[in-house]
From TrEMBL, chains A, B:
Cross-referenced Pfam families: Glyco_hydro_3, Glyco_hydro_3_C
Glycoside hydrolase family 3 C-terminal domain segment(s): 392-633
GO MF annotation: an example: beta-glucosidase activity
Domain (Glycoside hydrolase family 3 N-terminal): residue spans on this chain: 99-361
Keyword match Cytoplasm: no
Keyword tags: Hydrolase
Protein name: Beta-glucosidase
Single GO biological process annotation from the record: glucan catabolic process
Transmembrane segment boundaries: none
Coiled-coil positions: none
Organism field: Microlunatus endophyticus
Length: 752, 752
């Protein structure tokens, strides 16, 4: 049965009316079953169509769903291409076909809907759209190392244009999780360990994507997923409300303030309560306190997982809906919502509440406006400035870098000639020939004739004969560049859990990414043995780490004269790493996370509270490389800070003279830290309060002004429970070029 | 100025009156300064006197303090003897002198007090009184392995008699901290990782000590100290209220219900708020909700540590007093309380509130009654039954144990001939010749002629030539008994922090105890190398672990045919270990804590929530040996459980037939576990709900009845936030002889 919507005749289609009036009108026209349809997002999108060559046909997967509900809230992953979906360049939605596919599916959805309501097309875009031909950016941990949210916003504006050109509406962007335990496989998806970095970069992602009309952003994950115990994916976070508020919520606020249309309720529980069942979180905080009007989408299968706590799917559905989950994602339980209403477990008003939010987003994104042509798929845009700003130079003994006369170079290591290791998780297959490995980048830049290559080992296992070959190459060279680390590559033969995470029961080549948590974060033994064998040759070593999570690098540090941490830089990473090594560009990255020694000394975040700084009998408890640190090719000094702003913290401006003492132009990240003194609250050792990127000509001096970012305030704990007539809190402020350290004598004290 | 109290004339001295009337009367007679004196406990007790031979004289240390206040609340550690106090058998308070010393000091206190109020004499007694000649019990972790609180209560009754005979009033007993992170140096002080074990053993400690009239117990530590991040002593616990309530508070309730007169506010913060500043904890919960009328004593120096959050000592004092700290311990800040009242920071009513609690405890313990003679110091009482029940047999391949014909035995390892390693932290020096090492115990039991001994290595460092000697001994023997592990020994030359914890800046021989946290819990490399060298000889190995914390033992397991974990069993541990090995007694201990693989896979507690069970790519996340497990020399079966009690959880009685299939009498610990299904709350994998010890003759069968302990209920989370009209929670129950595992099919389901 196909119904033709009569465009423009009803108030809900009248885009001269306010959104709320349109939502109210539309909601009033829907039956209970139609409303429940708007709360469902069940079949995996890529299963809705098939492609033979350039010819696309729809499968029958969607028919039953549309018949059941008369319409549908959203469709997930229609264009997704990766090992889990099984879609590749032969079978998947390339840019040329994508808009056609979304149009075909959307047409079917609209036709099934009595009132002609389209579905939200929801796509993964954690660091670029996970679809064939999508621009791939560094994973978030790398982007955060730039300390340049402006560069990320520009890059994501292009991603938004790509998404819209293919007919998508919602980008799923991951930025809310903090990297508090590097054992977590999803470390790469975090903007580091700091709430301000996460806030600024999340906001940049949203701003960038939202600059494309018709694209909305759903932020994941809400909330506290980075606090999962043991770094185990989806495990619980037994944290308290202050820890949640100070560390894990600022980025949510920032993303919402920047215009996110939704948040994704996370897998984890907080202090026992799964996020999808957490009425305090999803309703009390998000709605009642923050006034957020967008949608809460459950993570994939998270509502069904709630079945571990209930006795039936009906009960599960009732718990999640009551808590505040508006839109499910591949769950069975939300099929039972009508039954839950019928059984009196929930009131229809709760269905209305959720449906209204879904409809509001659809209207806001223009789904019920007269159809407009999609923009054309944009030509590729260079992300070189972003990518080149991600690597962090951690060691540079005797200014070995940049390389002058390179001589004969041995490029050694499992990641040297691996393209996929550059990409991270949640990526589509690259086109043939795309991307540049570090080896290829060095050959292009230095000349293939100077370079000899040996893998030497696999990531976690020895390569038969590898050590001997590597040693021979090192002995025959003037310099070794070791390319080590990890990989989140997914192979099409891998096993996957129901939600697409790696399933460890199968063979997994990856050392990171969703589902690949590790106990020990120190460099795997096979690579460590390679480093030691090569070091024994005496040939100087420059180490390059391609890795999604912080690794324990003491064994690399001991044998390297230079060390460059490059995260997962994306497909062009190898070219830009070569340019950095040769000095065409200066390394300007700063660590967005503390690098640990081993797993045994976790946690090491710079902003743990003061009490956590006690050392162990057998090890330091501090980081091996601290948050905010990183070297360049230039030399700088920062003068004594002064407050040139107002007398209160919110209006303070910490100013200091910054000088580039070098003979070349350079860039710096000037960081502002604070430590509070709030009666009765143990302060964090330091809190990043602001930062700014500065470029200065050779020999130049400029005054740098730093303001306190509103999203950084929470971590100071100035709102701690008042203890009677105790004086107001104070805060000491100090700028730094290389991470927090202890407050110096020159720190500025202010009333909090 | 000395005032003679006129005993019996004032109401506060009339013990026919109720306590509250006496407290009110006494409080009304005190000046502000005198009241504040009752809130102070400042000089370290052992510094108040000197001994030359049998002659004791008072120092001038107390004079200024008594002059300042006209009396004093309490005196800490008057009789303490250990490396920190520097008191030994030459300079310390032996049993014969102790009563005289307390009487001399008390006389001075009373004389200085206008109303003749004595001080509380407060002594450390975590596993026996930390004074010369005090009975030493296993550390708490060992006692918990007995699963026999009744044995501990009997042993502590004797400790209470010793304390009273010396003139002490308050025993500081540590049992509240849960062992959630084995990196913590104080792991040995915990009754394991489970709230019910901690509750039952804490209550047993209190019951035992309180059976001696005039002895009160202050429980440490309140609260959540075992949740400290990274296992770092005194670090914060960023946990939420549910985690606190379910795991960390039941033992506090149990100890209070058993008659504790006070709790000690811990060093750590909970979710940012230091315990000594936590008004919600110390007043809202403890007083207003629980109705507790005893004292809150701060941990040693904890109030002054609060100075990290305030701008002055006056402010510090005001914050702590307002929060609810009644009695300081070696803090400067409480000297400023009068100034704080004068400055209007606190009202005198808060001074009264605290003083009233101190006075109440003094009156309750008889300090203001007519003096009565002290009991005589009791003759030693054997704790053999307790000590022998602590070791847990973890491996016994081919029933190697008990040893039949022992043959030639090599006893190897750093703990084989070390007496002090048996004792743990918080112990006085032993008398000359006291105690039995494992080596000595084996020689006594088996015959010295059969035994050859080599240390082989030190605890954390190789012993020069040690490996060769150990290998030679093993090669020349039919069997090796390796005695490995750790030690919390304190040497008189060690460095100590202000609170007596080990100071890691100095040389520390210990691998455990307060202040000696470690990053890596796996057996130290030196010992592991020793194990491997000895194993290479092919001589069968029985391993005995003397260790205060859970160690990662994979490397021992790989090479041992039997493995006995013995905690810190106390001075007679060596004798009883030998008896167990020879089969004079059966090992009956069960693990009170999960033994991890390495630090990298922490946490491993059996009662983490379901979500934490996900494995790592490079390791299991589970324990190597699970909570509740342990072998004996007998074979048992447990029949299908049935509920023979009431229909509701509180009245349920889980009954099952237990059979001893062996040819000898045997003992078992029957454990009852539950898992809840509470809508919207992720359950813990299992919760220990009850347990009982059973002895059965060879071949006998008996019905065992298990009831649900009220202190175990909290961890089920049945009080989770109601989600509308969702059905009531259910709980599945199952008995077990060897730890929780997964609920079996025979588990009983009940309404929660």
């Amino acid at each position: 049965m196909i119904n033709s919507p009569q465009a423009g005749t009803e108030p809900y289609r009248d885009n001269t009316l306010g959104i709320e009036a349109r939502v109210d009108d539309l909601l009033g026209r829907l039956t209970l079953r139609e409303k429940i349809g708007q709360l469902n997002q069940r079949p995996l999108g890529w299963q809705l169509w098939q492609r033979r060559g350039p010819e696309v046909t729809l499968t029958e997967t969607l028919d039953a769903e549309l018949d059941r509900f008369g319409g549908l809230g959203a469709i997930y992953g229609l264009l997704r291409a990766d090992a889990w979906s099984g879609r590749d360049w032969t079978t998947g939605a390339d840019p040329a076909l994508s808009a056609e596919i979304t149009a075909m599916v959307q047409e079917q959805v609209v036709a099934s809907s009595r009132l002609g309501i389209p579905a939200l097309i929801v796509e993964e875009a954690p660091h670029g759209h996970q679809a064939l031909g999508g621009t791939l950016l560094p994973t978030n941990l790398g982007s955060a190392a730039t300390w340049r949210p402006d560069l990320l916003a520009e890059a994501f504006a292009h991603v938004g244009r790509e998404l819209r050109a293919r007919g998508a509406h919602i980008a799923l962007a991951s930025g809310l999780d903090l990297l508090r335990d590097p054992r977590w496989g999803r470390s790469e998806e975090c903007f580091g360990e700091d709430p301000l970095l996460a806030s600024r970069f999340t906001a940049a992602q949203v701003r960038g994507l939202r600059s494309e009309p018709g694209i909305g952003v759903v932020l994941k994950h809400f909330a506290g997923q980075g606090a999962a115990v043991g770094g185990r994916n989806g495990a619980g976070a037994p944290i308290g409300p202050r820890e949640l508020d100070e560390l894990h919520l600022p980025a949510v606020r920032a993303g919402i303030d920047a215009g996110a249309v939704g948040v994704m309720a996370a897998y984890n529980e907080i202090d026992g309560i799964p996020c999808v069942a957490n009425e305090w979180l999803l309703t009390g905080l998000l709605r009642d306190q923050w006034g957020f009007g967008g949608i809460v989408m459950a993570d994939l299968g998270a509502i069904d997982q709630l079945g571990r706590t209930t006795s039936s799917a009906v009960e599960t559905a009732a718990v999640a809906l009551r808590a505040g989950v508006d839109l499910s994602l591949c769950d069975e339980a939300y099929l039972s919502l009508e039954e839950a209403v019928g059984a009196g477990l929930i009131d229809e008003a709760l269905i209305d509440r959720a449906c209204m939010r879904v409809l509001r987003v659809k209207i806001e994104l223009g789904l019920l406006d007269p159809p407009a042509p999609l923009p054309v798929f944009p030509t590729p845009r260079s992300a070189d400035d972003l990518v080149a700003a991600t690597p962090v130079l951690l060691i540079n003994d005797d200014r070995l870098l940049p390389l002058g006369a390179p001589g004969r170079i041995a490029v050694i290591g499992p990641n040297a000639d691996d393209r996929d290791c550059l990409l991270g998780d949640y990526v589509p297959p690259l086109p043939d020939g795309a991307g540049t490995t570090v080896l290829a980048g060095l050959r292009d830049r230095i000349g293939a004739g100077r370079i000899r290559h040996e893998a030497g080992s696999r990531l976690t296992e020895p390569l038969p004969g590898g050590l001997d070959c590597a040693v021979a190459a090192a002995e025959d060279s003037d310099l070794v560049i070791m390319v080590l680390g990890g990989s989140s590559v997914r192979h099409y033969a891998d096993a996957f859990a129901d939600n697409g995470a790696a399933e460890l029961t199968g063979a997994v080549a990856a050392t990171g990414g969703e589902g690949v948590d590790v106990a020990e974060v120190a460099l795997p033994a096979a690579q460590q043995q390679l480093v030691e064998a090569v070091a024994a040759t005496g040939t100087p070593i420059i180490s390059v780490m391609i890795a999604g999570r912080p690794l324990g690098l003491q064994g690399v540090v001991d044998h390297s004269r230079a060390l460059l941490w490059a995260g997962y830089p994306g497909p062009d990473g190898g070219r830009l790493v070569a340019e950095l090594i040769m000095g065409d560009r200066e390394p300007v990255g700063r660590l967005p996370v503390s690098l640990p020694r081993t797993s045994a000394s976790l946690p090491v975040a710079y902003n743990e509270r003061l009490g956590a700084s006690r050392r162990y009998a057998d090890s330091e408890s501090s980081a091996l490389f601290r948050f905010g640190s990183g070297l360049g090719y230039t030399t700088w000094s920062l003068g004594v800070p002064r407050n040139t702003g107002g007398p209160d913290l919110a209006g303070a401006v910490v100013s200091a003279d910054l000088t580039n003492h070098s003979g070349r132009e350079g860039r710096q990240i000037v960081q502002l830290y604070g430590r509070s003194r709030t009666p009765g609250l143990l302060p964090r050792r330091a809190v990043l309060l602001g930062f700014t990127a500065v470029a200065l000509a050779a020999g130049a001096t400029a005054e740098v002004d730093l303001r306190i970012d509103p999203y950084a305030i929470a971590a100071l704990g100035l709102d701690a429970p008042s203890t009677g007539s105790a004086p107001a809190p104070t805060v000491v402020l100090w700028p730094s070029l290389d991470g927090p350290g202890e407050p110096p004598e020159s720190a500025i004290t202010m009333q909090g």
